[in-house]
Amino acid sequence: MLDATLAEIGPLDEAAMAAAQDLHARLTKPAGSLGALEALSVRLAGLAGTCPPPLPEPAAVAIFAADHGVHAQGVTPWPQEVTAQMVANFLAGGAVVNAFAGQTGATVTVVDVGVATPLAQPKVPAQRSGRSTPRLVSAKVRAGSRDMSARPALTRDEARSAVETGIRVAHELLDSGAGILVTGDMGIGNTTAAAALIAAFTGIDPAEATGRGTGIDDVTYARKVAVVRAALARHVPDPADPLGVLAAVGGLEHAALAGFVLGGAARRVPVLLDGVSAVAAALAAVAFAPDAVGAMVAGHRSAEPGATAGLDRLGLLPIIDLGLRLGEGTGALLAYPVVAGAVRVLHEVATFDAAGVSEK
Ligand SMILES: O=C(O)c1ccc[n+]([C@@H]2O[C@H](COP(=O)([O-])O)[C@@H](O)[C@H]2O)c1
Ligand SMILES: Cc1cc2nc[nH]c2cc1C
């Protein structure tokens, strides 16, 4: 399934991009006045292979949830059970991601690819009216990754299985009518794995890739950098072998997110990236299929330094830069109306000719 997906990923359609560029020049606005939105809409025309590209609606966020063996190294102040507890909160509609998804009409799908503790009963009761009910997909590959500081976090088969789960979820959401995929993640300890993945794929020093995650003191931060450094020194992952990198130092949610991005790229639908874990997964996705970058839209710039390094490597400009560091898909969902607006211009704005507006 992975190989078939990779075979479907191709370059942007130059003719559709030229048509979008030409249309932009004829719309009732000074050329270039929509700044980065113009290049974004042109790229999405190239992705869809038509001008204008379809409106990217509705949005569907998938929150891939998993735990991390490296939690045992004391890299985060939060207990591991919070992953399962937050999954229950997502399903009950009580998390920030639910508030932001509701605001833009996005559906919420939670995918358990590797939560280590039993899922807690949802405690927050009410769904808000008019909002779709969050859905759980149970696709546990194993109960958390292994501790990367002692052994490979995953076997290659486990990593592949998680990648294929992400591909499957992408297809399911698109078959249900989604017009854009939004990445979300939940996993206590996952910023350690994300930093290791970003250092492995970009070659930057672990100290540059590692941030303070949910919020840690200087002593914990120094330990976290040392754990990432030691894991990379132990496994020496080959950046040209993305499955090997994911297996050595990744999390199950990172592998699944890589598949989710590849699934969207194969279907030529935009994938709106959230924070540092999405960026780590996006680096894996382009290592599998360089053309997958054409489907990626960077929702925001996470406060994690590795996210900026990864976005630079991908050549993506984040839409929002507000110092967010929550994950769940929150930053990407806030950026969604900007992406929809970029495309809507090509559908709804009159040309100079049609509107009778004089050109310069
Ligand atoms: O999205 C981000 O950039 C981001 C930055 C910091 C923390 N997080 C979230 O916080 C959790 C991981 O933080 P930590 O400190 O336990 O590694 C995980 O559930 C992530 O979704 C997410
Ligand atoms: C409470 C909490 C909510 C989160 N959402 C994503 N990561 C998280 C980590 C914590 C600790």
Automatic annotation (TrEMBL):
Signal peptide: none
Active site (UniProt): E328
Transferase keyword on record: yes
Catalytically driven reaction(s): 5,6-dimethylbenzimidazole + nicotinate beta-D-ribonucleotide = alpha-ribazole 5'-phosphate + nicotinate + H(+)
Keyword Cell membrane on entry: no
Keywords tagged on the record: Cobalamin biosynthesis, Glycosyltransferase, Transferase
EC number from the UniProt entry: 2.4.2.21
Superkingdom of origin: Bacteria
Family per similarity comment: Belongs to the CobT family.
Summary of the function given for this chain in its UniProt record: Catalyzes the synthesis of alpha-ribazole-5'-phosphate from nicotinate mononucleotide (NAMN) and 5,6-dimethylbenzimidazole (DMB).
Protein name: Nicotinate-nucleotide--dimethylbenzimidazole phosphoribosyltransferase
Organism encoding this protein: Plantactinospora mayteni
Lineage of the species this protein comes from: Bacteria, Bacillati, Actinomycetota, Actinomycetes, Micromonosporales
Gene behind the chain: cobT
